[in-house]
Each structure stands twice: as structure tokens, then as C-alpha cells.
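Task: complex structure prediction.
Instruction: return C-alpha cells for all chains below.
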Amino acid sequence: MKKVFGGPAIFLDRADINTDEIIPAKYLTEVTKEALKPYCMEDLKLEGFDPQGERLKNARVIISRENFGCGSSREHAPWVFEVNDIHTVISESYARIFRQNMFNCGMLAIELPKADIDALMALEKEANGAVDVKVNLPDQQVVACGNGREVSFSFDISPFDKALVDAGGWVEYADARY
Amino acid sequence: MGQTTAEKIFAAHLRDEPFPGTKVLDLDRVLCHEITTPVAIADLEWRGKDRVFDNTKIKAVIDHVTPSKDSKTALQAKMLRDWARRHDIKDFFDVGHNGVCHALFPEKGYIRPGFTAIMGDSHTCTHGAFGAFAAGVGTTDLEVGILKGVCAFREPKTIRVNLNGSLQPGVYAKDVILYVIGQLGVNGATDRVIEFHGPVVDAMSMDARMTLCNMAIEAGGTCGICQPDMVTVDYLWPFIDGEFASKKAALEDYSQWCTDADADYDKVLDFDVTALEPHVTYGYKPDCVKPVTEMAGTRIDQVYIGTCTNGRIEDLRQAAEVLKGRKVSDTLRGIVSPATPKIFQEALAEGLIQIFMDAGFCVTNPTCGACLGMSNGILAEGEACASTSNRNFNGRMGKGGMVHLMSPATAAATAITGVITDARELK
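Output:
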């Protein structure tokens, strides 16, 4: 099933957020995605970030820096986002496996240049964290609104990644084709 | 234009190119463990597609938490075990026969030059040591691999790393790869294959080459690759002697996967490692590396020797050589986990286990255990571990714990003194 993209954003202003920080290994003993829900980014230590806070609870989009999702191949990282209704990550770049896992789950890992992420981070400060993001997939546009101001950026998505999102994930795509 | 090893393997395994740049490859191996496979199994059942594409190409092991430590890990093990039985997967390794996947599967001869392999485990890049393309993937890729025997990749470019000169005594593959990661950075090889070349690699055993390739992912690399040569053939010979008339014939065949002289690289890096010192990590990223001399004296609470990086027989020999006749400091505890039952038995036969035990080490069964903070040696808050593993992320071995990555020799020396120590200084 095709996912819904966009909504309130949470900002993680640091490079190299790793999958151990997104979901610690001690929770890899769960055999359902739902069971991961309370532990989203539990071990992430970042100024102003509270894993138990309202801001994360309300977030539907994550905005971050370079090499997001590095480290372990655990798909539990995209899953813990998925079960918390976070279907979109926007960052400067990704670790390969995390990025693939997002699209394989029919979710979006959008890459924007550093200048665009800088502008989004600036908007966050200006809006005191209250930034809402709209994702227009057909036009490949991200529109962020905060403090009565709107900024928009276009992004690239490969036809394969788009096909995965449209199909609802890699299992659906591969099963129909191979 | 010539081709790199990865390009040759991609060309030989190409099933489909649904869009330019997206290559769907046929898989020679789909490797499974009990942490990332059960969710794939459950999803296949839920979809009414509980099938496997080829039960001889799928290999499975319970290795991350074994024997199971609680009801949850017991369920994970049971799900993998039941599935392996249901589909008659003969190469399934359970308690008594199991070991760390990236040590066990190569040891069984499952990985050959020119093969494609995936596993739901980021350190699958280890198997590139055999001149194979092996990549860590998530559970969805694994699920499709199990069902269809294919996986999609953006064809990676290759970074060539030439390791020139020769290693000084007491300096090992682990020191080389820590240094290289320090140079590349944690995303310096993202979407890239790292090919290792040069006299230093040529002189390395398969154990050492696996250590090298194991940490390619710590620079973001899709796979680490060594060129197949006579060392590779010698290692595989017990498994391939029926396939080839002679080792020379095997080498000739495997050489088809070697990179062409005029292959195109993303970049070429030359390192002369003759003056390289043992290296150790500080901080919470694997590219935070320093020579051991600059880290000497750092207090340590636990020493952990084992894992898919450095739990092989050569690693245990190097550690035991330092430990022989010495005692673990009473300010820390030492844990050693031989990576497979075969390695454990070899270590017993060679008297290495005796040396570890005489020194005061706890010897555990083969398991991934403490490396990722799941069992057998988790750190308390504020504690530091000198570890031969591959990741030092914040909280990796337990919330609030610090991990310093190093070679087995450096870890052994550290066990004796209680602080990070250059093993060469002990002699």
C-alpha cells in the first residue's frame, strides 16, 4: 500500500546518525515491527532532542545531515520510523543500506544539498521547531512551512526508487516481476 | 575499457536492468541469521508465500544470541530453526555447531571467487575477501532474496586501495583497516566497493584478508574485495578439489574475476604501511583512530577478543602469544569468544585456550554476543571495553559504555596492564 508523506518535522542537526542510535540492538529481539514503537531513537544524545518528547511523537518527517542511517543493516531502523508514522527522511546523504531499506519499505529517503538543509535548519530556529513539510512526489518538490514563511526545494528520485514507492515496496515490486 | 572485479561479477549475474543504473542480480548465496530473518519469514507466511528459491543456496545460522538468553531470543531461534527444517535447508547451524556467520560460512567453503551473496547483516562485506561480491542488506532485500534469488543494486564504483611496503612485526590487518578507515572517513566509500591490492594484501592469509574486508562497511563501503590468488585457492582446496584437476587449474579459473589492468576506478589510494603503528579508536565513530602510543594509559574495564572481525584462529594465536605466561590485570575482566566451533577446537588443540584460561580470561562459546550489546559481556554505564570488534558507536556494547577498537595483540596487552597498551612494549 502506498504510504502518506509529509507532516510536522523533527530536526536532527548532526551527521552520521547511526542505526544503533535509531534503534538499539537490545530491541532486535522483537519479531514484530509494532513492538519497536516505544524505542524510537532512545539512545540518541543530541542537544534539545528528547526521545520521549511531544516533538518526536508528533513528527512525520525527519530532517538531518550527512550519512544518515550508517552502521548496522537492521531494517528495524526504518521500521521504528514506519510504526511511528514517520515515512519521510530528508538529509544531505545516506548510508547505502539504510537508504535502500527505506525505499524497500515504500518510504522516502530524500536527498537535498547542504545549502537546502541549512535553510531548513534556519527555518526551524525561526519557527521555534514548528515546521510542517509537504512532499509532492509527482513534482519532486519539498515545501516547508514555518513562522508564516514557506521554502521549497526540488529533489531527485531515481525511477527505480519511485517505482518502489508506487508499488508499496520491493517485495511487491519483485513479486510481480521476477 | 577493462573491468573491476565487481563489474565482472555484476555482468555475469545480471538478471534485469529495470531502469538505467539499477541492476538486479542473480544470487549464489542468501545467508541468514536469527536476528534479521524471522521478520522476513513471518512476512512471507503472512503473504502466503512461504517458499525458498533454492534451499541449497540458502545457508542459515543462529549466531547473534546463542544459546538463547530469554524467551524472545528463543523465539527468534525457533523461527529460524523451524523454517530451515520446513524447507529442508541442509546447511543450517544450531547450538553445538554454530558460530559467527562471517567466520562460519567462509570456513565451510560456501563463498567462492565470482559469487554474489547477500545477508541481513552489514558485515557481509567480509566475504569479498574471496573475490566475491557480498553485501549487507535489510530484511526486505533478504526476503526477496529468499523468495526469488535476486537483489537490486545501483552498480557501485570501485575505490582501489594499494597497500604497499610491508607490515612490521606486531602490526596486523586490523591496524591497517583502522588506519584506512581513518583516512577515508565513515562515509568515504558509500556506494563504493573497496578493492585491496598490493604486496601487503598478497602476503596476507585469508583470515587477515577477512579482517580487512570486514570493516569496509565502516567507511560506508558496499563490499571489500581482495583478488583471488593461490592463498584463496589453498584455503578453498578441501571444498573444490573435486571441481578442478589441480590448484593451478582452479587459480586459472578464478583469475577471470581479477580486475583488468585498464579498469576504471572511482579513485586510487596508495598507502605505504611500512611505518604503520598499531592503531586504536577513540570516540564513537570507527574513523576516530590514533596510533596506540597516543592512546596508551587509557583505563579499560573489559577486554573482548572475538567477533567476525578478529575471532579467527590467527587472531587467537596473536593474542595468546602476548598473553602466554602472563595474568589479566585485576582491574579488568577478559572475555574471549572463538568465532566458530572449529576455531575453538583448533585453539584447544594448540593450547591457546589453556593460555587464555591461565591468564584469567573467561572463554565463551562462539557468538556475536557482546559486540552489539546483546549478550555475554555487556558494559555498564561509564565502562570502557578494549575490543577486537568493528563498531564503537555510543552505546554499542551497552548504554553509556565506551568501545575502543584494536587488534587482538593490542587487546591482549591491554588485558595484562589494565590500560591501553602497545603489545610491542611488553616484550
